[in-house]
Amino acid sequence: MRRETEISELTIPKLLLNNRDRYGDRTALREKDLGIWQKVSWKQYWEHVQNFALGLLNGRIFVSGAAPLSKELLRFYHGIGVRVRECFGMTECAGISVIPGEDDIRAGEVGYPIPGIEVKLAEDGEILLRGDPVFKGYYAKPEQTAQTFNEEGWLLTGDVGEFSRNGQLKIVDRKKDLIINAYGKNIAPSEIENKLKFSPFIKEGIVVGDGRPYLAALIQLELDNVSDWAQERRIPYTTYRSLAENPEIEKLIQREVDAVNAQLARVEKIRRFAILTKWKRSAWCP
Length: 286
What we know:
- By secondary structure, the protein is α+β, with helices and mostly antiparallel strands.
- It has helices at 12-17, 20-23, 42-54, 71-79, 142-148, 189-197, 223-232, 240-244, 247-261; strands at residues 62-64, 84-86, 88-90, 95-99, 112-113, 117-121, 126-131, 155-163, 169-174, 179-180, 186-187, 202-208, 215-221, 270-275.
- Among the domains are: 85-176, Luciferase, domain 3; 178-275, ANL, C-terminal domain (GMP Synthetase, Chain A, domain 3, 2-Layer Sandwich).
């Protein structure tokens, strides 16, 4: 039997309309677009989404890995009944090593170790794994293998993490990607970047600031949404460059950056940003 969502009163139209305080008249869905969704039950709507939009009618377990999901995106999926769980694992551990239970899913947490796996944190916060599923080493590469394990036989994952109050593992960022600012503070850029990319007007965001007193961001516009926004306001432009350099677009992105900054600690706030003036559909991998 298909599991009913715990947020049964929430629909995609309502979810988007709930963001009007942030997006104002820029939200892609306006009240007039609700149409039939005001007249159907949640069950009818859910069946439509599963059958025609998502193709998840027979799905039972949904797992996300490789990169962290933003909390907003995770809430969105749960809001439409797709109970995605974030997990943690590596090829060197034969796949998933840490995963939450069905009834213990929390945004930003990847759960508890599976049977046969031990997890602990090194002094610098790096996640260490040990157990039967952990591989013995790389074939014919003894030097690389030696660099992958510490003296006690723990696998060095290269990821930095921490434990939540309830004992679940939380992934902070890749160890090599952490930013250390001019004051010695460690900052994880991936969470900030995910918040930036949740904006409908930002396709990609790269946070920089290693050794600097503040953070900055390089931003690539979401061309379709920004161009539609500009056309609705009769803002003239001819090329992507002219659009990216328009003062009104800079103000638009500044508002989006301000909205992200409102969710961040002082040391994590973006003080300056630059909009890239060259656009390429595959400029970065997601």
